[in-house]
Each structure stands twice: as C-alpha cells, then as structure tokens.
Design brief:
Number of helices: 28
Strand content: 5-15%
Radius of gyration: 27 Å
Helix content: 25-40%
Structural class: alpha/beta
Distance between the termini: 51 Å
Shape: globular
Length: 690
C-alpha cells in the first residue's frame, strides 16, 4: 500500500482510486461488481476522474441495496451512515474518510467531475447531448441524482406511464355508478357513521385508468377490488365481455388474491337484484386463475425480456395487481409496456411493507401522500356525487393537488388487526419502540402474566404475543416441535405419517390438501440467509430436531414431509420463485412436490425440480403475500445493520392469531424500529413536477 503515502503530495490518481476500491472489495465492504464497474469506466476512458470512479462504485453498491439512484448530496461528505460501514472501515489511512479527503467537497464540484470525460454521466439537467453514457445525471438542479443508465430509463418510462394513465379521464355515468355503489356498500347497523374509504376507492378508480388502493392487513383491499370489478362489469358497454386479469408477484399471493376475489364476488351476487343482468358468477369463471407477474407477461428463459410488450400487449381491459409493494421498478416498467393504453390498472398493497429485494419501491413512491390524502376540490365533489361520501377536511388540499394523489386511496380501518398483534404492528409502523416493547408485556386482552422471557424454551401457555431472548437457536426448534396448543410443524408431520384415510384418488387428494393446510398454519421467518440464526443454519437445525423427534425420516435429498421453496421461475413446469410446497408421495407412490392454490392442488415430480431449498425457515421478504396462524420472527445477533422497521412490521403482519419474537440479543427490536428503510428514488419528483 505504498501508494497511500504519496497521496498528499501527488493527489489521487484513477489507478490509485481503483486500488482503494478493490481493497474495500477484498474486505467485503463492496461487491466485486461495484469495483468492476469503476474499472470498466476507466477502460472506456483513461482520463476518467477519481470522483467518477468512486461515484460509480457507490452507485452500484446502492443499487444492490434496492436504491434506483444515488443522491449526489450524499457524496459531499464521507457517506458512512449511507453505507452503514463499521468505524474501522471509516477511519484510518485506508478508510472512507481518507479517500474522501481527496475528492470534491461541494455539490457543484461533484457535478462537474461527473461530466469531465467521455465516460461521464449524461446530464438530464442541461442541453448536453446524450451519447449513450453508462451513467445518467437526473433529478433536479437542487437535488441531482446519479443513475445507472437502464434505471434512468425505467424510471422515466414508469413515471410518464403512470402519469399518463392517471391524467386521462374516463367517462363515468355518475348516477348509474352511484346506484350500484349504494347496493354494493350497505352500511351495517354496528358501523359508526364515518367515511367509507372502500366506497371512496371504488369511486376514485372510475375516474382514470390508474388507481392505487393501499392499506394495512385487514383493511379490505381485495374486498374493495371485488366490488370495483362488479361495478366495472355493471358499467361495461358493448357486446364483448369485460376482460379481467388478476396477478401478483408470487404464486402464493396470486392464489390468495384469486380466492379472496372469488369469495367476495360470490357473496356480492346475493346483493344483485334479479333481472339486473349482472352475472358475477360468469365473471368469476371467465377471469380464470390469478397468475404471477412473470407468468402473466410471459417470462422467457435466460433473458430479461417478456413475450408481452408494447408490440404484443396483454389482452385485458382490467388488470388487478396485489402485493404491489413487492413490484420493483424494472417489473413495473415491463408491466406498463405490456398493458394496452385503454386498460385499467389497479394496484393493491400495503405501502409500509418491505419493498422488493430488487431495486425500486414504486408503491412506496406512489403512496407518499396516501396518509395525508391531498385531494382536490374536484376529487371531493366527484366522490360526493358518485359515492355519496364526504372527504374529511384534513384530507383536502388547499393548493395545487398532486395528480397521483387523486387516484390513490388509503383504507384506514382494519377489520382484523384490532387486538394485540394489531397494536404491536401500529406501534412498530409508527416508530414507537416503547409502545412496541410494552405490547409484549401487556398484550390486549391477555392475562397480567408477562409475555417476555429470556429462557431458551417457549412459554407453554399460548398467547397472542410472545417475546424470547434465548442464548441459542434451539428455541426455534422448540417452537417447531411445540405441542402446547399453538400451531407448529408437529401437526402437519403427524398427518404426513398417518397417510391417506383410505385408497382412491379423491381420498389421497384430501390427505394432501390437509397436510398442506396444516403446514401453512405456522412459519419461522428470519432476516438473513447466513449463520446459525439465518435460513441456512435454522433450516438445518429444525430439520435435525424434527428427525430426532421421529417426525421426519430423512433419506437423501428428497423425503416425505420436506417443505421446499422454488428459487427460480420455470414457466414450463408452472412454478415460480417463491412458490412453497411439501414433498409427499403420489397416489401411485412416486414422490412429488405438492402446491396448494386456494383449494386446487398441483404437483411436480421431484426429479424435475432442481432450483429449490428447504423451507422450514424463510426470509421475511419471501413470506410477503402469505399469512400464517402463528408466525415466529427471528432477529439475528449483530443484525442491526440488516434490520429495519419495515422488516419487523412485515413479519408481524404475517401472523393472524399468534406472533413470537425471537431476539438473539437484547434491544434488536428497538434497533430495527429506529431504522426506517427509505430508498433513494426520483419517481416522487415526477408526481410533484408534473
């Protein structure tokens, strides 16, 4: 490292900058692809400045963390907080501070440095020509943002596409729509007189070809979407039938969406007057199954391209996408490209859940104004006319109202999360660590007994909330084996051992369905893959504990009772990343992986599934779109850097009746709550500038 001693006298060269970046890569602070991008830029232009190389490496690192761009203001001082590096990597002669002392100090200097060579960033903030540069400088003059070229393209197309759909008015027969909405939303006697946000959402969705419905668990997003579909069918004109498609990012979420929509429409048919001509049962049959977004768009093996695109659009009039928080920027771009200009897009999701592992948080950007409303006078008048609802004054906007806010509705009343789990979720989401911890000590409706324990075994008395701070991961195994009345893996494995009640295909199918339903009652979630407290270590430990207890008979890679998660899309087999199934024998004896979509079973031979992993334990990210009667969330030791408020909130809201928190160290819950996960993005500027 002799080159370090020459820095004060000679200044920093590009070659020395690359050595610095590669050193950080060797230390695990940067990925190989981060420093490789900087090296590639230097190959393209031997005169590339050190600032350009450093900015490129930092941008690649942030993209790997889910950000779509890098605010240049974050580079004006050593971005220690942004990167979350330990102090030893920040201080010292090889640290972050030492390198930053050789780099530009002001925002203007950084902008100039990024446009000083043929490999510079193309600037959208000036009239400089676009020559296909790998980096793009966008944002605003006061808040410039640095992009990788393809993400700048994604953001531009998504921003324009969403604005266009939100801004094109759709003719609405207001009086007819009002009559149908009054039929579909009948006030209940025990419901307090207040704004019916579900009814508001249906009305707002009629105004344009984009609508966003957000809300926490139990607020009725799919219930509302079903009534919106019935309303659109009632207002549909022409001889051709209304073409509706349902989709979600994962197979599990898609199956739940279809089941929820079908159930809601079936119940709603009873409220439709005879002779009205509105046949919701035919709509259910014609919709077909909900699909993953990859399946809907026609994923093609070994390519990022899809079969459906601008030149070959989807054949739909209405597309409803559930769990939209999981839709990353690139996928949203592909979806908008494939959607016909005349089609309606309805996005459903919880804005406070974890965003996708991929870069971008489109729903979060769309819903920045959702809690405040910010509705215009025209929107309020339309809602009053079509839905008979008065928007409360605090949600109205006195000045210029953002366009996207007019097509976004937040559902505010949860019909499911009213007890202890709901209170905990609200505390976490609100950033109130004290209230979150107190929820475990005094759960709503619980006995005075504390639900906090440092013991390595769970309490025997089932409770809605339980917090454990064990000294080893064995507590996770104890939960998996529990027979104390709370859901665990013991139940589904006993059903597996019992086998079908008799011969025959129908009896076998009933047995498979009961095993899969029992498995879905309980799940262990964690934040990381590596280590004793990650998916790899915990899956091995749980499998061994179940085997030692005689609940599993492991023989090779494939054995009855093994739960597996698909890790790669395979359209030919009909399986997609995130699908979870259980290995069970076919009626003829061969082992297959069985999946449950609502009540429908499907199976794939174990010999054809190469890309799977054991799924007793899964990450919180992979659990999105699922719900379990009992959910256990594991927070790893030293995990403060990977934990976030959104991760804990998402884990909590996977639980319907019981939630267990397992902290490998004291204070991890508080550390996570204090770390909201905000992703850098320029999409919000599209909403405010247009």
């Amino acid at each position: 490292m002799d080159w370090l001693s020459d820095l004060p006298a000679q200044g920093l060269s590009a070659a020395q900058t690359l050595q610095w970046l590669r050193l950080w890569t060797e230390q695990g602070l940067l990925r190989h692809i981060d420093s490789a991008l900087a090296a590639q830029l230097l190959r393209l232009d031997g005169q590339a400045s050190p600032a350009l190389l450093v900015a490129a490496a930092m941008l690649a690192q942030m993209e790997g963390r889910g950000h779509t761009c890098l605010p240049l203001a974050d580079l004006c001082t050593p971005p220690a907080a942004l990167l979350g590096w330990p102090a030893v990597a920040v201080e010292g002669p090889q640290g972050l501070q030492a390198l930053w002392a050789q780099l530009p100090a002001t925002l203007a200097d950084w902008q100039a440095a990024l446009q000083s060579s043929s490999a510079r960033a193309c600037s959208r903030l000036s009239d400089a020509p676009d020559q296909g540069q790998p980096l793009v400088l966008g944002g605003s003059v006061d808040a410039p943002l640095l992009y990788l070229r393809r993400y700048a393209g994604y953001e531009q197309r998504v921003g324009r596409g969403l604005l266009q759909r939100a801004s094109e008015p759709s003719p609405v027969p207001e009086a007819v729509a009002r009559r149908w909405l009054d039929r579909f939303f009948v006030p209940k006697a025990d419901t307090p007189v207040d704004t019916d946000w579900q009814k508001v959402a249906c009305a707002v969705a009629l105004r344009a070809r984009l609508s966003v419905i957000t809300g926490g668990p139990g607020t009725g997003k799919t219930y509302t979407a079903a009534r919106l579909l019935a309303l659109l069918l009632a207002l549909h004109e022409g001889d051709s039938p209304l073409r509706v498609a349902l989709a979600a990012p994962t197979g599990k979420a898609a199956a739940r969406l279809k089941q929820s929509i079908d159930n809601a429409l079936t119940g709603l048919q009873e409220q439709v007057p005879e002779g009205s001509g509105l046949d919701l049962n035919t709509l259910i049959a014609r919709m077909g199954p909900a699909r993953t977004l990859h399946s809907l768009l026609g994923a093609r093996p070994d390519t990022r391209q899809f079969r459906h695109h601008t030149a070959n659009p989807l054949d739909v009039d209405v597309l409803i996408v559930d769990e939209a928080s999981m839709v990353h920027l690139e996928m949203m771009d592909a979806l908008l490209q494939a959607l016909p200009p005349t089609a309606r897009l309805v996005l459903l999701g919880d804005k406070d859940q974890l965003a996708s592992v991929e870069a971008g948080a489109v729903l979060g950007d769309l819903c920045r104004d959702a809690a405040a409303g910010r509705y215009s006078a025209d929107t309020a008048q339309f809602v009053q006319s079509v839905a008979g609802q008065t928007l409360p004054a605090p949600y109205l906007c006195a000045g210029a109202a953002p366009l996207l806010a007019q097509q976004t509705v937040m559902l505010r009343q949860s019909r499911r999360f009213k007890g202890a789990i709901g209170q905990l979720a609200l505390a976490v989401n609100g950033g109130n660590a004290l209230a979150a911890r107190a929820a475990f000590l005094n759960p709503v409706g619980a006995s005075p007994r504390s639900r906090m324990s440092a013991e390595a075994t769970p309490l025997h008395e089932p409770s809605a909330l339980l917090a454990l701070q064990p000294s080893s991961p064995q507590v996770v195994c104890a939960l998996a084996l529990s027979t104390s009345g709370q859901p665990s893996y013991a139940h589904y494995l006993r059903l597996t051992q019992d086998g079908p009640a008799g011969p025959g295909t129908e009896t076998h199918a009933a047995w498979v369905r009961s095993v899969l339903q029992a498995f879905e009652r309980f799940r262990i979630l964690c934040a990381v893959h590596q280590g004793d407290w990650g998916t790899q270590g915990l899956n091995a430990a749980v499998q061994k504990a179940l085997t030692d207890k005689g609940l599993l008979k492991v023989s090779g890679e494939w054995f009855a009772g093994r739960p597996v998660m698909v890790t790669r899309n395979d359209a030919q087999l009909g399986v997609f990343n995130g699908d979870v199934g259980v290995v069970l024998p076919h009626v003829e004896g061969a082992l297959k992986v069985w999946f449950l979509d609502g009540e429908a079973l499907r199976s794939v031979s174990v010999m054809r599934l190469a890309q799977v992993e054991t799924a007793f334990v899964m990450t919180v990210h992979k659990s999105q779109g699922s719900e379990f009667e009992h959910t256990a969330l594991v927070l790893p030791p030293g995990g403060a850097e990977v934990l976030s408020r959104e991760l804990v909130y998402t884990g909590i809201t996977r639980a319907r009746e019981q939630f267990t928190l397992i902290e490998a160290e004291a204070g991890l819950l508080e550390a996570a709550i204090d770390r909201p996960n905000v992703r850098a993005s320029g999409l919000a500027q599209w909403w405010t500038l247009n």
